[in-house]
# Entry
Amino acid sequence: MNQSPTNHGDARLDPGLYIVATPIGNLGDLSPRAAGILARADVIAVEDSRVTAKLLNHIGTKRRMIPYHDHSADHVRADLIARLATQAVALVSDAGTPLISDPGYKLVRDARAAGHPIVTIPGPCAAIAALTLAGLPTDRFLFAGFLPPKDKAKADAIAELGAIRATLILYESGPRLHATLTALHAGLGDRDAAVTREISKSYEEAVGGTLSVLAARYADAPPRGEIVIVVAPPGAAPPPEADTVDALLRDAVARLPMAKAANAVAKATGLDKRELYARALALRGSVE
Ligand code: SAM
# Structure
């Protein structure tokens, strides 16, 4: 494993932007590398200085903090960018990985445009932690952050997500959980899902079930704490109609040798390539 050129024990940090992931609940999840960067940064761009002060206290250090949000006045970001020429600027959010439903994107964008070095110090992220707990497919997933709170906008956003063949990961708050599970059920059907809560804290839990079962479970009392909803991808796509398969085969045979055409259609549809080859032969026979 390589050691970063910017991370030599107690040495002064090279100037640049350091994106530092911090715990999402359990302070023990702060990596030694993240702690080392925070202890040596010239300045830390923070969401809330009270929250970050507690973290710095935990590692026994005090640093200058500058409040930063992507909607901060332009001069705040311009000041941070100017500092990058000579200073090590760390970026943290209140919890987890900066930029993930948190401030930082515009700062990284502008730092990159100005040609400053940018280093990321990876660590906790509630979305990924929830995915590992949910017991749902992990090979393709889509992180959709927070859905809009208003009913119509939420339903529209869910309709857009409906066709995506991937596990969905959503952030949500306890008071809105029931409404969101109900809207997900209405828009996506009764897919399998999991509600993960308070990850890495004492009351961590992951409750699995279909969306209707989960909506019923949380109907009466909103759960406390921080929540990630994970929803299974849609079921397997229905097999294509025979006419569609024939059209695909005719098109492929016009461009490719018979075996390659059958292979290409098999890949596109998931159908058996020998059966497709036989069908392609039959189609050719019927036009000769
Ligand atoms: N940047 C953070 C990250 O990397 O996960 C996310 C910040 S976002 C403003 C906060 C949301 O993340 C919460 O409302 C909740 O949905 C989720 N979250 C954060 N910590 C969590 C935890 N310990 N357990 C479950 N969800 C959590």
